[in-house]
Amino acid sequence: MTEQHNHLLAVLGAGVMGTGITALALGHGVPVVLVDTDEEILARAAQDVRRQIRQGQLLGKLPRDIRHPELRTVTDLDAIAPATAVVEAVVELPAVKADVLARASALVKPGTPVITNTSGIPVDELAGHCARPEDAVGAHFMNPPYLIRTVEVIRGPRSTDDALGRTLALLADLDRESIVVGDGPGFVINRVLQRMLNESARIVQEGIAGPEEVDALFRGCLGHTTGPLATADLIGLDNVADSLRVLHERTGDAGYEPCRLLLDKVAAGDHGRKTGRGFFDYGS
């Protein structure tokens, strides 16, 4: 059995991405302190982390010969002070992320990478709320993190070589492939993807095709493993809507304004896989 000792990762937010990043880290022997404001959410997240680790091992995506450190779950943000890296994975709302990053960055030692998992907010915008903007870096994990190896790493204008290097070293220890890009709304993946998801939903809204036909065309004609609307369901339609708002507000491009069908589904609580229904029905 092998084990990692050179990291203590603090993950902020026990939602879909925070839970997935925690499972990825523990699955590679990296100890994690997972922070959220709700004890019930943390209890469910701990169960989901164990499930994802088992799935990752069964699929051959996580090693089987690593001793998994015990997960520590806390509601007290002060517990992150000893962390060697922080990953923020709270809801994609700029004000919430700014508040969490401001408080967290003030607790850890200078030089500790403060990594935001934002899917579209410019890293430098968030870095401006950090105690030390030079320590802020973006790392856009795909869902589920244990299954998708490539991570879009965003270097902000104020990110130092050291902060970037420490972030890349952590990702290498998690067996991730890092692709470093520049800063800007949506970066690369979501600058393109979110527009595609929105337009696909608008096509369904206009009655041109149903979700099944849209996704079948993308799979059959373009070779996509999943179509855009199944992808939106996996991301979470609430998260898609939040990301689109961020892009629309920061670019002024009408193509990013969330379409009515998407907003109606979010308002109805049909957020995709995590709620059992989105553009497709997943049962309970």
Give the helix level as a range of percent.
40-55%
Q: Please tell me the overall pLDDT.
A: 95
Counting helices, strands and paired strands, the structural category is alpha/beta
Number of strands: 8
Please describe the biggest sheet, giving its number of strands, its sense, and whether it closes into a barrel: 8 strands, mixed
Described by the principal axes of the CA atoms, the overall outline is globular
Radius of gyration: 19 Å
Describe this structure in words.
- The chain has 284 residues and is of the alpha/beta class.
- Helices cover 43% and strands 12% of the residues.
- The protein has helices spanning 16-27, 39-58, 94-105, 123-127, 161-173, 189-205, 211-222, 228-235, 237-251, 260-267; strands spanning 9-12, 32-35, 72-74, 85-88, 114-116, 136-140, 150-154, 177-181.
- The chain has an 8-stranded mixed sheet, sandwiched between helices.
- Strand 1 (9-12), helix 1 (16-27) and strand 2 form a beta-alpha-beta unit.
- The longest helix is centred in the N-terminal third of the chain and has 20 residues, at 39-58.
- The chain is globular, with a radius of gyration of 19 Å.
- The mean pLDDT is 95.
